[in-house]
Amino acid sequence: MDPIRNPYAPGAGQRPPELAGRDEQLAAFEVVLERVAKGRPERSLVLTGLRGVGKTVLLNALRGAAVRKGWGTGKLEARPGQGLRRPLSSALHQAVRELGHRDEESVDHVLGVIKSFAHRDAGAGARLKDQWSPGIDVPAVRGRADSGDIEIDLVELFTDLGGLAADVGKGIGIFIDEMQDLGADDVSALCAACHELSQSGLPVIVVGAGLPHLPAVLSASKSYSERLFRYQRIDRLAREAADRALEAPAADEEAAFDPDALAAMYDATGGYPYFIQAYGKAVWDLAPRSPITVADVAVAAPEAESELAVGFFGSRYERATPGERDYLMAMADVAVDQDETEGDAVSSADVAARLGKKPQSLSPARDSLLKKGLVYSGERGRIAFTVPHFGRYLRERG
Fold first, then answer.
1. Contact between 96 and 107 (Cβ < 8 Å)
2. Which pTM value belongs to this model?
3. Which phi-psi region, left, alpha or beta, contains residue 178 (left: φ > 0; alpha: ψ -120 to 50)?
4. In degrees rounded to 5, what are phi and psi of residue 209?
5. Most buried among 69, 241, 268, 346, by the most CB within 10 A?
6. What is the pLDDT of residues 6-27, one digit of tens each?
7. Cα 215–179–48 angle (5° rounding)?
8. How many helices and strands (H and E) does the chain possess?
9. pLDDT, tens only, 123-150
10. Which of 110, 80, 254, 109 has the alpha carbon at shortest distance from 181?
């Protein structure tokens, strides 16, 4: 089949041609946008799930829905060891520009507060050349969001932003990807700011996305975070949605799949959106004609697996040290020994026993894997892969 017309898009955060299986989340967010803009109480939102389930894609889709409602939006990606002030200031600068408030004096005031918030990143008394600037051409507002206490500053900043948005009957949405990588102080401040917003009714919401242990990260920061956010677990697609993710783009190109081919594709991909796109692309390129058959899927499977082994699994495996790879392999073996479902957590003690070592001696490797985002711990003493099918990849690699 013509590779130029191949509709499938296996890319990190790249929106697939058919965003299947997320209608419920999109519809619920439309209600949130309307309620917040009207001053109704509504919680901020947190999306959680493994890598490859489409959290970033959904986060972008939700942001697009906010933009269509005339909201001001800004997005940032949290990174380990990076403070919140700089990336958040850039995101909020964009949000204010998108909001389109016509009172220049009010806008300049809020931009000045964002600038003062950003300048505190360099520390009190820093020289001008050492102060990072978010590209804002107005003077910093002294005495607002510049105390140096991130919690106080964030509450003041969000309050001013909310007032600006309320003036025009819209809202401001802050979209944070990889939210679990925020520092502890920044998480605490963000929770405090969201708590203040929920009490004041100002039209500002935070929409975060992260790994399955993100709720535990938030709860450890502020006990009330369990009531502060609305959590949505983003999982693999059900069979009907997975079929739609394949069939709809093919139909747009006047092509189709045999029913047996769709069943084979679901068995191979497990319904994970990234895998669906990878297999869809490989099958399309190698199938001689439409409709695509189960035999075509069998022929294309090695090509798809090879692509995933390099771009999805391999790139993560290469980040691990030899000792960390031993730990990962032991996790995969323990899961098989205990007949765990793919992706289930295993006991850290069992992993240590498999390696013939004391659990304490493996803490450095475990902690490093956690920081690298290769594993996560949803509960004390247990550990799981952040990537679906990673254990199978390790076992096949040998």
1. yes
2. 0.91
3. left
4. -135, 140
5. 346
6. 999 888 778 999 999 999 999 9
7. 50
8. 17, 8
9. 545 454 445 666 788 898 999 999 999 9
10. 80
